[in-house]
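Bug: token stream looks shifted between consecutive jobs. Job 1:
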Amino acid sequence: MIFEFREANPSDTEVIWDILQEAILRRKNDGSNQWQDGYPNRDILGADIENDAGYVLTEGEKVIGYCAVLVNDEPEYTNIVGKWLSHGDFLVVHRIVVAGDYAGKGLARQILFEVENLALAKNIFSIKVDTNFDNIAMIKTFEKLGYVYCGEVTFRGSPRRAYEKIVLQI
């Protein structure tokens, strides 16, 4: 498979929304409370795209994955119970989702590899992420890719596992 990772554009909105809805249902069916409170929603997705923070993973012309990538922009990360590895510029990755018929094929890892390349292109060497304590698949993905557990952050009243990876140009 040949993938492309690019900024999302408004014409991608409906397919991204469908992928997000699939992911929200998968989390619910897994017994998770993650994304069961009206987040993420269309307004968040629209803001991602409008602010050039939305990115899609495509196979050919087909959008098969999505994430938001922000630069130095996650206020909740200043309230970590624990300690980040670094204190300089960083990318934040939120809302990593893969289309249902592509789930389980390592594409979340592919998205994170692409984010590492994006970080290096921007001369940023830290990537920070978080996930629910019950999102075992994402926790394993972070750990396999060398993300280090740094502590807990809280979003909408819910504690989440926080990770950081220092990326270095080889």
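Job 2, same session, no restart:
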Amino acid sequence: MGSFSIWHWLIVLLIVVMVFGTKKLKNIGSDLGGAVKGFKDGMKDGSTAADSTTSPSAGQVANHTATDKSTIDVEAKHKG
């Protein structure tokens, strides 16, 4: 009783086609396909962009803060 037979699905499909029409269903299908393709392309672009950008290593950050005179090391004040 919980599962539908093929006849139930055919009747539902017939009602959907009668309500929306084949042209509207075709447009919805092509829009959905374009959205899925755009999502996949975005995921590919996002993974390649994340791989190509590298975060600075610890040595680069330490060298940058050593040359920057306006940076105050808060922990150094508490230690000394």
